[in-house]
Design goal:
713 residues; mainly beta; Immunoglobulin-like; TATA-Binding Protein; Methylamine Dehydrogenase, Chain H; 3 domains; seven-stranded antiparallel sheet; five-stranded antiparallel sheet; 7 helices; 15% helix; globular
Length: 713
Amino acid sequence: MADIEIKRGYEILPDNNIRFGVRVINSSDSAISDVEVILDYNESLFELEGSKIQKLGAIPPTLPRTVKFILKPLGCIHYEEIGATILYKDHTWKKNTQNMHPKEIHCVCPFLKEKPITRTEFLSLLNSGYMEERGINFENITPDKLIEFLSQTCNNRLYKVDEFSIENSKIIYLAGDALGEKAYYLFTVIIKEYEGITQVLMRANSDKIHGLNGFINEIIGNLRHLIQSVHSAREIGIIKKEQVINIIDSVVQKTTFTSGEGAESVNIEGSVVQHTEIKDNTEKRQKTHEEKQKKEKEQKEEERLKKDQKKHIAKNGGISLKKILAVLMMLGLILIVSLFLIGLMITTDSNQTPKVTPIANMTHSMPTSSPVPEGTPFTPTPTSTSIQTIWQESDIGFTIEEQNHLAIGAGRGDGIMRVYSTTNEINEYSFLNNHWEKISFGDDFLSNNGIVIGNVHNNNKGNNRVYITKYSVHEYYYDNNWLGGEVRGTSIIDEDGIVIGDVRNEDINRIYICDRDGIKELTYNYGDWSIIEINSNPYAKLTVTDGRNDGVLRLYAAINDHVYEYSWLGSDWKVEDCGFVNIYNDLHTICSGDGRNDGLNRIYITGNSKDSDGAIYELSYDGQNWQYITVSDSVTVDHMTIANARNNGINCLYTGSSKGISEYTFSGTWVKTSNIETGFEVNGLAVGNGRNDGINRIYVTGDDNHLYEYSLE
């Protein structure tokens, strides 16, 4: 057995450089010494900062040490492998050599062609997609010369949409299409001279995030190379990103001009924006034009809603809206209609969401649930047989590998919510400065089977960590950068899920996992982990909840076609079979929560029904027995959660499948109140406050390698 374990990973930095890390773990019982890492890379493709040999010295038993290399790509990198050799001496002073398994890396710089579009089309595209900003100060070079060099850099790659002046500033709009993929790239440049310094402020926009850094960095690199040809010209500093954003937003987005005339006057002094309003007839004409466009948009939306409503009425046997309203009034459902109207009035702030696409969703008029058990309390919810919901879709992240599981939480322990997805790494999405930023971290897992966020160290500091499973449990925490790795001794086979909870009701969070050998409990004990096996039932889906509504948390497992309840009795586990479900093979997923909005927790499970393609079941405890009803029996569901995605105080059941996303609301019976046809198979589903603005949204990963966000219009 080797004395060391080797982990490796990389991330793309904002300047398009690659930070490549190699972690060496001493897995022996004795210290190793004189540890060196020698990087193996293609020198024709990369330029390395510093030496390719880094020394780690001595490493005590069980402890990891990490070295980091900065590689500058000299072009577009696809499927390139980086290797390394580790040298060390064992406790007998014998020299050892171990080769690291190469890591495949990608650093995309898009190949572009000109995209001939109008200025109006350019400005409309600026409000969608992803963006990156840069700013550089130069001296001893004129703005005209910089514009000339910029034209050379972008020639035959970017189409000049417009060029105009505002005071002493030049603004240039450029547009291009990526060859080989459906993606646009926009480039906004402001060039300004102030007290002998020429400032270049740049913003890149695209509907694809993976090539954005490469796009803007390649242009900057070429521009810097041309500027070096000018005698005495030199770069004298980088402008802070926040200042670049403020200047570009003020100069471009807050001006009201036509063909560059009648614009707001902007003075840039030391990268601080000052405004001087120029009021003329241009502003009035612009305001009138905007009001006209808004009115036309409202009229078109009203016509579309009426058309969809007519189709829905025809689909339901030609019943008129007047008749439906008359029946509702006779039945005394005015309160329900009123609540529904209030719910529709709650809308979410657009927040300049990237790549926003409205999706109309018709609801289903017939309830699909079985009769409610007698005496079951419920709270009426604002549902209707003619609800029209507009969901906004935002594409917020792309990865080379297919994204799978999802979690939303304060993974860094700083109280800030972020969205986490899994590929062969962990991807963290943070909503900052009105756009999403992604970083990746963790070892190469070759995909994984679950991700959760929680404070399992129980140190009362909100010290959340991120946990994933793949052949073992991996733990990651943030301390200026992401650290962590495999939890030693947690070898598992074909694991099927992971949850965190205080199942023993001792104010101590523990991890619960299930693999081929059964359900296991992991407890953190002051630097070490203890693992016990709860039972030997394999391949279970897990959830933690107060399922009996008696104030006691328990573990629930969907195993084969049954749901089992695990209760801690102080010295042993009590197992109870909660019932049998009429399905083929195994249950697909399980979740829990107050789905009926009556203050009672229930359990929800899905599987392939013997009577239909798929089914969703609700499991309730009535004080003596477990009761099952059918929520839906029309589609096979792979992902499910209870949440308030409409932000109206009403929980709904949300599901993800190969057909898209569905929403079910309970109002005496379960009704499908929304359906989003995504066009891709849902790999993961979560609902939460991902933007930290107090608004819940739906997040899903798809088999198209993207992460999407859905919110109400």
